[in-house]
Amino acid sequence: MLTFQDARQLVIMQSQGHASPRPTQDLPVSDALGYVLAQEIHTDREYPPFNRATRDGYAVRTSEASQGAALQCTGEIKAGDNVCLPLMSGTCVQIMTGAAVPSGADAVVMIEFTRRSNDIVTFDRPTQSGQNIVPRGSEAHAGDLALSSGLRLGYAELAVAAQVGAFTVRCHKKPRVAILSTGDEVVPVTETPGPFHIRNSNSISLAAQVQLAGGEPVPLQNALDRVDDLAAKIEQGLREDVLVLSGGVSMGKYDLVESVLKGMGAEFFFDAVAMRPGKPTVFGRCGNTWVFGLPGNPVSTMVTFQLFALPALDILSGAAPRPLALLEATLAEPLKEKAGLTHFLPARLDWRASAPYVRALPWHGSGDISTLTCANCFLVVPADRPDIAAGEKVSVLPRFDVL
Ligand code: AMP
Ligand code: MG
Fold first, then answer.
1. What is the mean pLDDT of the chain?
2. I want to staple 176 with a disulfide (CB 3.0 to 4.6 A). Which of 32, 83, 240, 299 is the partner?
3. Ligand 1 pocket residue status of 296, Cβ below 6 Å
C-alpha cells in the first residue's frame, strides 16, 4: 500500500504530466482573488516614483541639521503636493509621510526629535544622510517584473497589480469540480432526516474546500448506492475537469463507486493509502476528468481532499502544487496509535510556549466533525512510531483554511 507521501506524489506526477491548465480569461483586478495569473505583469514606472518621506517631520540638508542646530522653516509639503522648488540653503520645510522630498534635502527628521518656536526648528538629535527617505526607484525600476505568471493572486499580489496599473489581469479559469456524495442514508441539508438518515454535510464541506483551493464547485445531487443511479450521476460529473466523490469506496457490499467507474472506462492510479482515516481513497482518470473517490466519513473526506485533491487543483489552476506544509511541534501529551498506518488526528497547535506544542483532541473517530471545529491541524503519527512520549517532536499538517 502506498504511503500518503507517495500517493500525493503520484497525484502531482499524473496531473503535471497529463493535465493542461485551464484556458485563460481577463478579469478586473477587483474580482481576481484566488485566481492564478496567466501573464507577467511589469511595473509601469519607478517605485517609489519620487523620493518619498516615510515620516512626518522636516526635510533638511544633513550638514545643516546637526544636533542642536536651528533652521528656519519656510513652508510645508503634503502627500500629493507638486514639489518643484529645491530646498534653500539654511532652511527646512515641514513634510508629511508620503510626500515628495524636495531636491537639495537628503534627510527627513522626525517631528518628535525637533522643537519649534514660530518658524525656527531646533534639532535634538544627530541627523544621518538618507534617514526617513525611500529613494525614487529603490523598490523597482520601470519595466521590472512585478508578478510572474503562475502566481496565485492573494491580497498582496492584487495590491501590486493595482499599484502598477494592471486593472485587468489575465488569469486561468478555475477548474470546475463536480461534487458527488453517495449513500442511501444521505439526505439534503434542507430535508428532515429520518431516524437512520444523516444530512449531507460532505457536499457542503467539499464545496468549501474546493472554493478555498481555487476551484469552482459544481454540486451534483447525492447518488444512491445503486449502479444505475451512481452511473448516471458520475456521467454528469465527468463533464467537469475533476470529479470528487464522497463515500462508497470501502469494502462494503454497497460500496460501488470503484466498480461503476471501472465499468465506465476509468483508469486507477491508486485505490488505497496506508493512512487512517482515509485508507480506501481512490485516484484515477476517466476520459478527460480526474477522479477522486474519498471515503465518506467526514473527517476522512476532509483530510484526503487536502492531501490529494488540493495539489491537483493547483496544477489545473495553472499554479505549482503547493508543498505539503508539515510543521514540527512538541507533543504535549503521550500518544498510542495502531502501527502500520499513518494516523491523522485532529489536534490543536499552540504558541503560548516559546516553541509550538501540539495536543491531539479527544474524538470519536472519523465521523466526529465537531472535534474538528476546535482543531487547527492534524497531528501526523507515523506508521512506524505508534508510541510517542510527551515532549517528543512530531509533525503536524495545518488545516489549509485555518493556518
Ligand atoms: P462510506 O464511505 O460510504 O462507507 O461512508 C462512511 C460513513 O460516512 C457513512 O456511514 C456516513 O455516516 C458518513 N457519510 C457518508 N456520506 C456522507 C455525507 N455526504 N455527509 C456526511 N456524512 C457522510
Ligand atoms: Mg456509503
1. 97
2. 240
3. yes
